[in-house]
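Practice set, problem 2.
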Amino acid sequence: MAFDLKRVLKVMLLASSGPLSVKDIQTAFARLHEQATNLPLTDESAAPAAPGETPVQGESAGALFAAVEDEKYYREVPTFVTATQIREGMETISTEAKASDSELLLVEGHNGWRLVTQPRFARWVRLLRNEPPPVRLSPSSLETLAVIAYRQPVTRAEIEQIRGVSADAGLSKLLERDLIYIVGRADLPGRPIQYGTNEIFLEFVGLKSLEDLPASDVLSPRQIDAWLQSASQPRHATDADMGLDEKEEAQMALGPTTEQTERPPS
């Protein structure tokens, strides 16, 4: 049997208790060759019989054949697999699972790959484990989470300025679900607490890193800074803001007109 990286990756994914990273896979290959060097795969006690001796029979012969076959197989295993080779193998596994409508899917998170069940079979998993259905976040909590994800680190006051309502309930719910955590304190009067997202948030939204967040002009740091500044320093509404014609207002202003000024005295 020839060495097949894809099949090895499948086995590792099934045997892994958590996400499988490139480093984990490369470490396994290094251990294989380290063990092959320190512990020979063939057993000297199972060596073929010398001339005049009784040949090996039964289980000993089967064990010898298996050892020889294993040694041939592991000789074909490369001493090192690159990250590119691993990613290509994972991509092939993912594509084949989707094409065959498999019950399992391969997803890549911020700390590696893992096999997960199809969403339509999630209820069966909950029934097996006797787990309650997942609790959905309210629109208010989702808005608060979005502001924190794009703005972080952010204080409660900044969240409330952006959303225009109290953020206490949303923050409490997100902290309870471990989707956010306290980053520290802002260098502002009163040293308010700052919030940010964590690894559980990345798993919740299915992202590898914060850099994979969808681009948002509304929630970009530059736009939010301008928003907060305008909220903290409101300006008086002008005639243009009220929909009035500034030229007409100028013509209706009190004072002598141009004709009155230039009219010669009678």
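Problem 2, part (b): a different protein.
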Amino acid sequence: MPEIETMMRQVKLGGMAKGWRSIPFIDPEQYVTALLKLELLEREANRINRRMKKANFRVLKTLDEFVWTPKIELPNGLTQAYMEDLSFLGAKENLIFMGTVGTGKTHLATAIALKACQEGRDVRFFTAAELGNILLEKNSKGSLNSFLAGMKKTELIVIDEVGFVPLHKDAAELLFQVISDCYERRSLIITSNLEFSQWNTIFGDNRLTAALVDRLIHHSHIVIFSGESYRLTQSMQRQRAAKGV
């Protein structure tokens, strides 16, 4: 490794160390400016990667890959652009995606959250069951307050798959605390295959469920996803193609 590259790495100029040879030299000012831009781009890419790792996405999905269909029903006053440009974050509003399995709820939630990461926002992604288990574990180890304090620094929390697995009573109460802490302070995206009237089967307590739903819907946009499972449709199309139909 050339000495100049070694020294760049020693002073934490990894972007320069990677690309200094590729920059054409016209004059000193142009060359130094190009070097600094290279370093700034590298640092921003590293920041985005750290935020994405912290968010803990299960898979990465982008808005470019998402297909908006007539089966996705937006409420009055909500537009695709309002969600995609993250305007709801500034307003401390929630997005609730409800509908049958495989209709794109998780894809859209992930894609919006990923864009938030790329724009410098602090994001966390959980399934409801995963978050419930984390809260129970933190509570039993005496580190719940520290975990909740860290969550308060988050601008967007995604809670996916509400309704797939019933929650333990204590987990439901702790999840209620997380959602209550978010009220008018930060945004949530929640995906569920159940209507609100069925959420008591998840949380196991009618009063807790009513209070939780009340807080959620006050500053929320509810988007309904209907139609056939996207994954099932793709699978059937692949089978037909393989058979030459």
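Answer key, part (b): Residues 141 and 162 are 25 Å apart (CA to CA). The longest helix spans residues 28-55.
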